[in-house]
């Protein structure tokens, strides 16, 4: 069973609308860079690698509508689309990684005299390449990660780091789980519901049911109870940005899980592609944390469950210190502490895309 997240139909980007899952499987069409930016902002598409792939197609859509007649006019117009897409969500570095790749591709073409049509075609090709690489990375991560999972493991995961969070296929953390399941290891999954957006309850649980993976849904505040009772063998989560020293930003609540796992001596794994590793960010204190609408805390799908006037906070991510991470699983292999050295080594033979010049930190 393959879960599709992002697809190209007749040259138009289509996204499964993750706000409507699991009750409805609806695909939305993004014809312009602006449509794509809105889909990212409103979390129709979410999950670090999926956001990166969608943004690359968003730049390609922007390129297809350029009007300029000179290379500098084309570059100026394209940059406006890139900057719009960059303003959508600040934490997942895959977004900036993909935009930087598209920008570099455009610049090289324009310096070599490409005209408008050639630029648009080449940028669409580059987006398709980024998409294909993401699918391949998720398969490779699943292979490396499954080797770390003993038979019969009861695995706890947070948020959704499955096919829906990448551009399809396996996913990151849930990809590792899927591969271990395919290998007949008789694993089972504790699915954290993941307040407030319920990525665990709505999306991870949906993927597990589709794949026939034994899964049990719990609320976030039950994790400690099940760790204490000896019912959790390891934790696997995805990441939105991994700093050069291994500090890892992921969905809010991940840090709490890492503290609990340490207390109970439970291995804590992070699975993420190299496009999530940001060597330009030295440590977790430098990772920008998105603060989303406070209304998302007071209500869910427009049903308010808290007083309208109560103040609320909504940091969408937190940072787990590298010292709490047992290993980081990537498509190029598994990094173990000390991460500054092991992550750097994994990049040998892989291009490092620097994003620090463009990105605005809070
Ligand atoms: O706010 P979201 O749903 O985009 O957050 C997603 C996560 O935190 C995932 O765990 C992370 O992107 C890794 S997904 C492969």
Structure description:
There is one protein chain. The chain has 11 helices and 18 strands. The chain has 362 residues and is of the alpha/beta class. Helix 1 runs parallel beside helix 3 and helix 5 (116-146) crosses helix 6. It has helices spanning 33-41, 48-64, 71-86, 93-111, 116-146, 173-182, 199-211, 223-228, 254-263, 295-298, 339-346, and strands spanning 3-4, 6-9, 12-16, 27-30, 154-157, 168-169, 188-192, 215-218, 234-237, 241-243, 248-251, 268-271, 277-278, 299-300, 303-304, 317-320, 327-330, 333-335. It is globular, with a radius of gyration of 20 Å. It binds 5-S-methyl-1-O-phosphono-5-thio-D-ribulose. Residues 46-49, 92, 159, 161, 165-166, 171-172, 199, 238-240, 250-251, 316 line the site of 5-S-methyl-1-O-phosphono-5-thio-D-ribulose.
How are the elements arranged and paired?
Elements: E1 3-4, E2 6-9, E3 12-16, E4 27-30, H1 33-41, H2 48-64, H3 71-86, H4 93-111, H5 116-146, E5 154-157, E6 168-169, H6 173-182, E7 188-192, H7 199-211, E8 215-218, H8 223-228, E9 234-237, E10 241-243, E11 248-251, H9 254-263, E12 268-271, E13 277-278, H10 295-298, E14 299-300, E15 303-304, E16 317-320, E17 327-330, E18 333-335, H11 339-346
Helix pairs in contact: 1-2, 1-3, 2-3, 2-4, 2-5, 3-4, 4-5, 5-6
This protein binds 5-S-methyl-1-O-phosphono-5-thio-D-ribulose.
């Amino acid at each position: 069973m393959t879960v599709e997240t992002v697809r190209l139909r007749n040259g138009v980007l289509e996204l499964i609308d993750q706000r409507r899952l699991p009750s409805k499987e609806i695909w939305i069409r993004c014809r312009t860079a602006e449509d794509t930016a809105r889909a990212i902002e409103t979390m129709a598409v979410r999950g670090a690698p999926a956001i990166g792939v969608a943004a690359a197609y968003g730049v390609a859509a922007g390129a297809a509508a350029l009007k300029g007649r000179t290379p500098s006019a084309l570059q100026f117009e394209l940059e406006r689309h890139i900057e719009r897409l960059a303003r959508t969500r600040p934490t997942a570095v895959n977004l900036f990684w993909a935009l930087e790749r598209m920008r570099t591709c455009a610049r090289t073409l324009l310096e070599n005299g490409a005209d408008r049509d050639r630029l648009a075609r080449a940028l669409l090709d580059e987006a398709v390449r980024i998409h294909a690489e993401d699918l391949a990375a998720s398969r490779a991560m699943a292979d490396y990660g499954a080797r770390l999972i003993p038979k019969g493991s009861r695995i706890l995961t947070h948020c959704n780091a499955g096919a829906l969070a990448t551009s399809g296929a396996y996913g990151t953390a849930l990809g590792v789980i899927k591969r271990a399941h395919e290998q007949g290891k008789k694993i089972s999954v504790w699915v954290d519901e993941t307040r407030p957006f319920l990525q665990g309850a709505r999306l991870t649980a949906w993927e597990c049911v589709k794949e026939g993976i034994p899964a049990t849904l719990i609320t976030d505040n039950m994790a400690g109870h099940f760790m204490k009772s000896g019912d959790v063998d390891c934790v696997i989560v995805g990441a939105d940005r991994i700093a050069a020293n291994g500090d890892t930003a992921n969905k809010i609540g991940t840090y709490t899980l890492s503290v609990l796992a340490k207390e109970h001596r439970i291995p804590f794994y992070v699975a993420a592609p190299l496009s999530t590793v940001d060597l330009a960010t030295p440590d977790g204190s430098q990772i920008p944390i998105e603060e989303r609408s406070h209304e998302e805390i007071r209500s869910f799908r427009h049903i308010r469950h808290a007083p309208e006037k109560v103040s609320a906070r909504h940091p969408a991510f937190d940072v787990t210190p590298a010292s709490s991470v047992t290993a980081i699983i990537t498509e190029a292999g598994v990094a173990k502490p000390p991460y500054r050295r092991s992550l750097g080594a994994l990049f040998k033979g892989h291009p490092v895309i620097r994003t620090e010049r463009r990105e605005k930190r809070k």
